[in-house]
Protein: Undecaprenyl-diphosphatase
Organism: Clostridium oceanicum
Amino acid sequence: MGIDIIFILKAIIIGIVEGITEFVPVSSTGHMILVGSAINFNGEFAKMFEVVIQLGAILAVVVLYFKKIKESIIEFFKFIFTKGKEGKVGFKFGINVIVGSIPIGIVGALFYHRIKALFRPEAVIIGFIVGGILLLIIETIYRKKNHSVDDIDSITVVQALKVGVLQILSVVPGMSRSASTIMGGWIAGISTPIAAEFSFFLAIPAMVGSSAKDLFEFDYSIMTETLWIALVVGFIVAFIVSIIVMNKFVSYLKKKPMRIFAIYRILAGILLGTLVITNVMKLTV
């Protein structure tokens, strides 16, 4: 059997969707489910594929923030080995990431199978609308208030925990991990660009942790040459697009509000819901 070029093109499309949507507040998982359903890219491989290309997006975080990650890791252990005499900044940052990751880690471990059962187009549509409304409300209430934190190293443990608690919302497909953590940042008194950057770092343990179980349980005996090529190409595409989008997204947040993303989510959810209810569009996973 030869290589299925059409299938690989579909994988490229999903990779682009992941790269564009992973770090902006519109839900990458939701978009991949909907687009995958629309182009008939679904099934067990598609689920594993989505997990792998999300790791491509995470690699983009590691590459873009490699210096910060490297320095923080070194300082974290330096603080431990010198009994607090050196590396205080990196240690504090590391603790913040750990604390911010605990809530979703607990929820993910306790309710893994129930969460996976939510990964359906109908849930995504609801998540789009509800998440968009929450984004509008919380931005209106908190964004213009005095945010004392405009440096990622100034985030406190309590603020990191608040962000982590809001990140729990992202277990619902369509809600968006980026939107959830940024809303948590607003509530905690963190400026929007810094909240967005902190969400990038929280994505590393959250997504690596959730991906590990899926990749371990996947039946690799079904893999063919086409599937392996699709997997590698999708990973690379998601990685490249994520790097481009992350830079532009942070620059955007320094100048403009996120209202446009909330409006897009609500309108997209209403449109998709209408199409499904009227049987104009049928979505499957």
